[in-house]
Amino acid sequence: MSVKILIPTPLQKYTANQATIECGGGTVAELIDALEIACPDMKGRLRDEQGEPRRFLNIYVNSEDIRFLDGVKTPLNKGDEVSIVPAVAGG
Questions:
Q1: Average per-residue pLDDT in the chain?
Q2: Using alpha carbons only, how large is the chain's radius of gyration in Å?
Q3: Which regions span the lipid bilayer (predicted)?
């Protein structure tokens, strides 16, 4: 099953400057595993030591924040689009 991942500009240096990547996975966690295999330099950039998304990253499945779904256990379907969005802070 193929899912499209939208990679933010700051992380594209780990994906050979690709803005989108196609990977497979039945859940967001499995998709991140597949992305880290496809792009080994990405390992450790998306998840903390407990396997949860890093605090400064927001992950969306078809424009829905996974924090309001099932987190990294959110199921994925063929053709879904996953966006990785760095959090913006400032004042």
A1: 92
A2: 12
A3: none
Assigned token pair, 21 = 């990547």
Structure tokens at 10: 């700051």
Is residue 87 very low, low, confident or very high in pLDDT (cuts 50, 70, 90)? confident
Q: Which two tokens stand for residue 78?
A: 């063929």
Sheet of 64-65: strand order equals 20-23, 3-6, 81-86, 57-61, 64-65
Q: Is 8 helix (H, G, I), strand (E, B) or coil?
A: coil
Predicted confidence (pLDDT) per residue in 30-86, tens digit = 999 999 999 999 988 999 988 889 989 999 999 999 999 999 999 999 999 999 999
Local structure of residue 54 (DSSP, 8 states)? P
